[in-house]
Amino acid sequence: MAIEQIKKDLENLANPEKAKLLQRFFKTAKGEYGEGDIFLGIMVPQQRKVANKHKDLTLNQLQQLLKSNIHEHRLTAIFILVHKYKKTNQKTKKQIFNFYLKNTNRINNWDLIDLSAPNIVGNYLLDKPKDILYKLARSKSLWEKRIAILSTFAFIANNEYKDTLKISEILLNDSHDLIHKGVGWMLREVGKRVSQQKEEQFLKKHYKNMPRTMLRYAIERFPENKRKFYMKK
Length: 233
Fold this sequence. Notes:
With 233 residues, this protein is an all-alpha fold. It is 66% helix and 0% strand. The protein has helices spanning 2-11, 16-25, 44-53, 59-66, 71-87, 90-102, 110-114, 118-124, 131-137, 142-151, 153-156, 162-170, 177-194, 196-206, 212-218, 224-231.
């Protein structure tokens, strides 16, 4: 069976010492954001090779992989899903988009989101209403909120920034560090790829009340004198 084979291929690459490091890095202890996530200790390039070998898996089979508590099973499923999305027609793209949104509870660590949300959710919504992103941004789920802001990376790459700024405003007072980092990163990309002026208009309105991590990420590429200015409350 294809599912058993892909799991076997990943198991053969397992590295217990690396797994221990990844368990700590991805905050898997009790009460942390990645609680319960299990790692085999496989490097991303190795997982991509396994994904490429099994790229013809169906959505039903990918669903089974996403149900796994093993991180590399879910990430490999994500790599296959992104590949399928890029290579298919518009009808199947819609199916993959809907499949993705139905599985947000299993796309539940920041790397899974960062490597897929812009490529699937963001790309699909480029020429469509963005209402779903605003719903996700107001979700109680940490991961759905991160999907909302990271999906806008696809818009930024196409010189569109308004949704990034609007969703950033929604998430401005979020309490989680992973949201602070995600929003700050996307604001930085607005300044880098679209318009630093637009980024600074947003910052001048909000910098005094923004979480410091979010602000630091947003101004990372600014000259030192500007960084100092914004870091002053």
